[in-house]
Amino acid sequence: MPLLLQYTEIENEELSLEAWKKEAYRLFASKISNPEARFPCIPATQAFALGHLRYGFVPNPRHESAGRKLTELIAEYGKSSHSFGDYTSLVVFFESEEKIRDVLEYEEVFWDLLSQVSCLDSTPWPKDIPEDPEQAMWEFCYDDERYFVYCATPAHTSRQSRSFPYFMLAMTPRWVLNQWKAHPQKAAAIAPRIRARLAAYDAAPAHPELKLYGSQGNLEYKQYFLRDDDSSPTGCPFHRAIQKEQAEK
Predict the structure, then answer these.
(1) N or C, which terminus of the chain has less Cβ within 10 Å?
(2) What InterPro entries does the database record attribute to this sequence (predicted)?
């Protein structure tokens, strides 16, 4: 079975997927295509409708193989992402982990996974991207590809836009996001619609860290994992350099 799956493959009854994988995809499809409770991210809904998304499945996020499996998915996706469509993203579902109960625990797991992935990256960090997450132009990179990373968890309640029955990541290449910036009138027209949808979708106001990449005062990592309230980490929990040093010893 391939690492990355298209929606047609997941929906194929002949494909012997485990029950939890089929359920995770079914719940995702229902959430992102709901015509009444419209998911706020319009580009994501378009990507789903057009079949540009690719899906992967990983053992529970605390399993010893989770970091390696996630790395394999990202590596495979990055090799072919330009052929998947203009709105493509990699959507990763993790098997349930009942011992993780609150948002802060999921936040810790999230950053640990990204740190593990970065530790396994044999490609040097891109020279045009700062290695310090406290810089406005920093973003997560793997194999010389830049990504915006979105996380949803079962523990989120107020921010339904970040809530999902399974721990889930969505990784969007920077080149996809740059295509929106290349059409400023279109982007300017969609932005207020996204904000309006977000206000209707979530019980909490838009998180204060939702800002434009590279803008003054923006730190990209604070948008990857939004807490259920308005708080955010005082420092980035991403420990690429530390894990690299440990791996080399």
Answers:
(1) C
(2) Uncharacterised_YqcI/YcgG
